[in-house]
Structure formats: structure tokens, C-alpha cells
Fold this sequence. Notes:
By secondary structure, the chain is mainly beta. It has helices spanning 2-14, 31-36, 366-378, 399-411; strands at 21-24, 43-46, 49-52, 55-56, 63-66, 73-76, 85-87, 96-98, 101-103, 111-114, 119-121, 124-126, 129-130, 135-140, 145-147, 150-152, 155-156, 161-169, 176-178, 181-183, 189-198, 203-205, 208-210, 221-226, 232-234, 237-239, 245-248, 261-263, 266-268, 275-277, 281-283, 286-288, 308-310, 315-318. The site of one calcium ion has 8 residues, from loops.
Amino acid sequence: MTSKLLLFGALFTYGTCVAAIISVPADSASIQAGISGASAMDTVHVAPGVYIENVSFLGKAILVRSTGGRDSTFIEPADTSLAIVSFSSGEDTNSTIDGFTFRYARGVPAASCSGTSPNIQNCDFTECRASTGSAVIKCDSSAARIISNRIYACRGDSSAEWACIRLSGASVSSPCVIENSIHDNLGGMVYGIVCANLGSGALIMHNLIWGNYSDDPALGSGIRTAQSIGSKIINNTVVANTRGIVSIDRKKVAFDFDSTDIRNNIIAYNFMEGLDAISSKHDYNNIFNNGVEPWELAPREIAVDPLFVDAANHDYGLQPISPCINSGDPDSAYHDPDGSCADMGALYFDLSFMCGDANNSDEVDIDDIMYLIEYIFSSGSSPIPYESGNADCLEMIDIDDVVYLINYVFSGGPPPCAPCSPG
Length: 423
Ligand SMILES: [Ca+2]
Ligand SMILES: [Ca+2]
Ligand SMILES: [Ca+2]
């Protein structure tokens, strides 16, 4: 899709010029050679394999993408004193890297943005080693978009303060960190996402941050902001880290720093504090069962078991009866993709449903009839969601709905919920 869009854009931008696709290794032996030979709007397609090199985008507005995805396409550093991929020549959001696994960075970032704002998406970062002040993805004075990446099994040197994603410095617009999964990173003082001296607030949304442990339990957290213009920390699930969310964006005399906005998050089972927010506005969070609970709940905050699908196996989706469903900020700006009020946490519970599909299997068949009979007569489980069992669209769920479904499934009767008369 993206390459088609790029081709389309290129036709408009350059008239008769057509954007090229450069294949690695078929056309160019290395990814860097592919980038060196690319022109603006070109795409570099990288075949599955292990590539040992350091990659620089050279300021080019191009898409570099694996054809097989991150599970089969690896980049390891040839020179461990350099980032594996760097953006240091004015790149903006027309520069995109997509679908690689970066591994074995040693004391330097795996991905580095210096005064640049690329898209880093659908990539894995693993088995990297961090030293003090380092990060796996490090963006300075950047409005990078860091989306749908996974960072796991990285380690910090003993007593090193480090981050999986570190945002710092002045930037013309806000960096975005969205839908990333950050887990099982250990050692030193580990932070999942850090905003440090950030001149423009970051948007940190729908990230899943769990199981990141510092050697020193007094330091490290899932998300930390410090001395920064207020960021938006919205709809993240921050579970079982050393600490949850820490925000110390104190108002300075010379700068009227905006408050950090922390809402719709699930912050649970962290070893020390769940939320430690000295200057933030926070509400609509579920702050549950953290080791230290000093914080007073805001009016719409709750402290109840979020009822994850399977926390023991790190499935942090919500059960149908989770108290986090539709308990987030009701403002339409936060609505879930199903159109309902925001849930708390990174993974919303999809309330859209197929009428008559009482067992939520994505089809209406005899199993739903049996399910409804169980529910009505034998205290079986409730339809998922409840409304899906109301096949005749009349009042409550009762035997009439079973009859309606039998008629539909076996006798070609009208489909469930049609006609569904308003009111
Ligand atoms: Ca919802
Ligand atoms: Ca079904
Ligand atoms: Ca009914």
C-alpha cells in the first residue's frame, strides 16, 4: 500500500519521473548500497536474511522495507561503535524504515535520530546492550513517529541509567510513540519510555509496557517524563515494571511548562509506585495493586483488578467483564475504534458484534442456539456481548430468541436483528 502511495505521489511530484524499486540483494548487495543508489520517493525492498552493516538514510525521502517482515529480516552492526540505523541528515516523515529486527547494538542506540523525524515502524529491537544515558531508540530534537515496534530482551550495564525509547531536546513538533510493545528488558536502571528536557510534548499512546526490571528497585519505570513540556500519556498498559509512570515536569520560572496529561492508562502490579506524578494532571486511570500506593486517586480514577485475559501469559487484553471497558475519558476524542467510549489500557475490548453470534465465534450457527439455551435454562455464560443474544431484537433475551435463531439457521427465516425496529 505504502509503495503504491509513494509511486502515486512521485508521479505528481516529478511528472514524468517514476519512483523506482530497488531490491536488496538482487539489485544492490547491501541495504546501504540500496539507499545510496536511491532517489527521493524510491523504495528499497530488502529480502529476508541477516545483514551485517550500519545503515544511514543519508537524508533521503525513501521507504526501506523488508519484504518478509521483521521475523525473517535482521540487521546487526558491522561497527558496534555506531548505531545500526541512523537518521542524521535532516530526514523527516518522508523517510521510513519498516519491518526489520535490529539486534546486538552495544552501548550505542540501535536506532538514532539526531535532529531528524523519520518513521520507525513494525520493527523489533532485541538483545541490545545499553550503557549510561543510552537508549535502544534514541531521538534528540526529533518529531519521529515510532509506531508498532517491539523492544524486548535488551540489557543495561550494571548501574547504567538507560531507556528503551528516549526522547529529548527541542523539536518543532511532537514525537509520537504509539502501539509499541516494550517488555522483558533488564539490568541497570531501565525505563521503557523517557522524555527528558523535551521542548515539545510527546504523544505516548496505546503502548504495552511490562516486565522491565531495574537492578535497583528505587529507580527505573515504565514511562518517565522529566523537565519536559507536558506530554500526553494516553491509553497505555503499564504492568509489572519496577515502577509505573513517573512524571516530574516541575514548573520552571522561565518557562511555563504545561502539565503532562496522564489518562486512560492501566497501571498495575508494578513493584514500587504505580503513579508518581508531581506536576501532571491525571484522571481516568486504573491504578491497581502496585507495591507502593501513595497517590490519591483523581475523581474518575479506579483501583480495581483490570481483569486481563491472561496476565500470567502476558495477554493484557480485557475480559468481557473488565471494569476498564468504557471507563476511560468519555470525550469523543478518545473513542475506541468500535465507536464506544474509551476503555482504559492499550488494548480495547471490541464491542462491535454480529447479532445472533452469542458465543462470539464470528458466525451464527447451531452453536449459538445451544449457547443461548444453556444461558437461559442452565445458568450458562452470558452472550458476548450480551446484546448479541437478542436475535429477535425484542426486549430481553429469552426463548423467543432461540426460536428465532432456529428458524434462521434451519428454515431460512429472517436474519438476526432484522427487522430491528428503532425504539
Ligand atoms: Ca470502549
Ligand atoms: Ca457463533
Ligand atoms: Ca429477544
